[in-house]
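Milestone 3.1: sequence recovery, worked example.
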């Protein structure tokens, strides 16, 4: 049922009463029948400012819709807030913000309340709208797609090198980067990476496996959008391409 339909239903219910004392009694009965609020929700934070009597209003969200619970130390006020909750319970924040409260004037409630109670009514409506606005902002924030972090080309280059150092030659216990098997690395502004590499021998039977390992490792590096690998044997690899770290590890220094 829409907000407007619920309000129309309330107007029809009150139309059976001709005397305002009967309407007051109906509002009191509504207050008495309203579910008891959890005592833990009777906090200063949930206390509505601007009401002559004390009114606590709590709001929760479930599946994008808002649900209210309330209590008051004045039974007539409790009946009024029960009507407001009936109108707005189970609606989205946007539906609540877009709605006009028509039933209050149509049943003559506003004109038959004392000035202090009328002010309290306004405060209750205001608090409901404030809850709707707050939850709407939360929903909008949660719905935003997280922006992907952009990495400078220099940082992506470093990340690629770190990834290459995790891939080892199948015959020599040194990573392919320090071994000098990587001839060229190009990183585009769009995060696409081009790698030209070789093997220690053109006849290496595990060349395809190493290339796959390189592709997998580099693809996982932060800032990398895609990987293109070119395997070449020109020029052929020799030990002069090894870093000092590799030479030291192999006992060649």
């Amino acid at each position: 049922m829409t907000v407007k339909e619920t309000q129309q239903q309330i107007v029809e219910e009150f139309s059976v009463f001709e005397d305002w004392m009967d309407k007051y009694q109906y509002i009191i009965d509504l207050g008495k029948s309203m579910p008891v609020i959890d005592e833990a929700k009777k906090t200063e934070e949930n206390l509505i400012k601007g009401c002559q009597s004390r009114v606590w209003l709590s709001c929760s969200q479930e599946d994008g819709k808002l649900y209210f619970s309330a209590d008051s130390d004045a039974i007539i006020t409790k009946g009024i807030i029960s009507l407001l909750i009936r109108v707005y319970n189970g609606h989205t924040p946007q539906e609540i913000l877009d709605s006009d409260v028509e039933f209050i004037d149509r049943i003559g409630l506003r004109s038959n309340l004392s000035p202090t109670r009328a002010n309290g009514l306004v405060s209750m409506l205001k608090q409901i709208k404030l809850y709707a606005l707050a939850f709407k902002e939360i929903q909008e924030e949660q719905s935003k797609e997280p922006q992907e972090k952009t990495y400078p080309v220099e940082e992506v280059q470093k990340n690629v090198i770190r990834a290459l150092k995790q891939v080892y030659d199948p015959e020599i216990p040194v990573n392919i980067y320090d071994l000098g098997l990587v001839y060229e690395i190009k990183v585009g502004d769009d995060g696409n990476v081009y790698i030209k590499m070789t093997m220690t021998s053109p006849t290496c039977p595990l060349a395809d496996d190493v290339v796959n390992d390189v592709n997998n490792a580099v693809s996982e590096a932060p800032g990398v959008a895609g990987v293109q690998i070119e395997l070449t044997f020109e020029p052929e690899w020799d030990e002069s391409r090894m870093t000092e770290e590799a030479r030291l590890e192999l006992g060649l220094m």
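The first helix runs from residue 3 to 14. The two ends are 83 Å apart (CA to CA).
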